[in-house]
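Quick start: read one record
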Amino acid sequence: MKTLTAQMSSDGSAWRLYVVLYGETEWPTVRWEGPRPVPTVAERRHALAGLGYEVAPGTQWSWTEDSRDPEDDSTPVLLIAAVGVREREGGAA
């Protein structure tokens, strides 16, 4: 089964989780609106299942940070998480 990448990001407002589909114009996406804590692993697993994906065996979430202006360390941080995913058998939950 093909492994894809799911990413989750926030710039301090809503969290977005999406599955990267190269060559496609729209990616499966879930949003948690408004400022809130980081979605839990269980919330992320449920969101992925709703999109028809699951975390690939042997993979785990990794985190990095970025900013809109890498030359200016006073700009807000963008948090990005990534994990390998695969399509669920039977599709979306």
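The mean pLDDT is 92.
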